[in-house]
Amino acid sequence: MYRAKDFYESVFNIEVKLEDFQGVHMGWFPMDDKKPGASGALVLNEAYIPSKTKGVLIYFNSINIDKHLEQVVKSGGEIIQNFTEISPEIGAMGLFIDTEGNRIALYSHP
User: Fold this and answer.
1) Could you tell me which residues come within 8 angstroms of residue 30 by beta carbon, excluding any fewer than 6 positions away?
2) What is the pTM (predicted TM-score) of this model?
3) pLDDT value at position 27?
4) In terms of Cα–Cα distance, which of 10, 6, 27, 29 is closest to 67?
């Protein structure tokens, strides 16, 4: 949990708040009701198995995909797909593996 916390704090320049809910370790991403978007949490549980190729693909908004991908590498993650334009109307994306083996995408709209 601490490695994942450090990774996401470094990549996104945020503070992840750790909590223990009856033995379930969680790391809460910051939330601001006055801004668009969703908050989220890291969850450490033996039932959850990271996957580089299967399962849900989470997308995080990014105003600078290249900058975030650069920070991913510096923080111990792995880039799977560099900045890629989807289309001028839709935007762009990038893809990485975090320090825990989770496949995560970044999205930037035009």
Assistant:
1) 14, 15, 16, 17, 39
2) 0.88
3) 94
4) 10
The answer to whether 99 and 16 are in contact (CB under 8 A) is no
Per-residue model confidence as pLDDT tens digits over 54-97: 888 989 999 999 999 999 999 999 999 999 999 999 999 999 99
Residue 37 has what pLDDT? 65
Rounded CA-CA distance 78/15 in Å is 21
Residues 60, 107 contacting (CB under 8 angstroms): yes
**For the residues of the chain, what is the DSSP string, one character each?**
-HHHHHHHHHHHT--PEEEEETTEEEEEPP--TTSSS---EEEE-TT----SSSS--EEEE-S-HHHHHHHHHHTT-EEEEEEEEEETTTEEEEEEE-TTS-EEEEEE--
Q: Per the structure block, which two tokens stand in for 17?
A: 């708040």
Question: Is 12 within 8 Å of 68 (Cβ atoms)?
Answer: yes
Angle CA 58–1–73, to nearest 5:
60
